[in-house]
Write the structure tokens for this entry.
Amino acid sequence: MLRSVPFQLRKFAMGENEVFLGTGRRKTAVARVRVSRGMGKCLVNGRSLDEYCSQPEFARLALRSANLLELVDRVDIAIRVGGGGLMGQAGAISHGVARALVAMHPEMRPALKNEGLLTRDSRIRERKKAGRPGARKRFQFSKR
């Protein structure tokens, strides 16, 4: 039954409290997000969000969708994130939280869509090409 539903839209009942899942990606970072009704706790890899994010801008980016919907104090968010750097991880968390919140409140989809929070940022590092020192850089040209 669960295989027919995309992973990011699944919901699980845990007692009376439902858990909504969302997967977010940015560059090489992947975030698995679990959102449930609660008191506003946010854990990233077992640590608080402020402790995990070295700069406040990363924490603000990560919870942008919850702030937009004014749900920060009404949901608990548990995140497992890996790969990439802190900026890519913050973008992946933002994408995953937005997807989980859409699973929780489908009527909020247009608001998140208009802000571009449901769109996966597809920009990734370009691969190195054969016969060149980098992806686009060339060896120095000499006429003679």
Notes: The longest strand covers residues 17-26. Helices lie at 49-52, 56-62, 64-68, 86-104, 109-114.
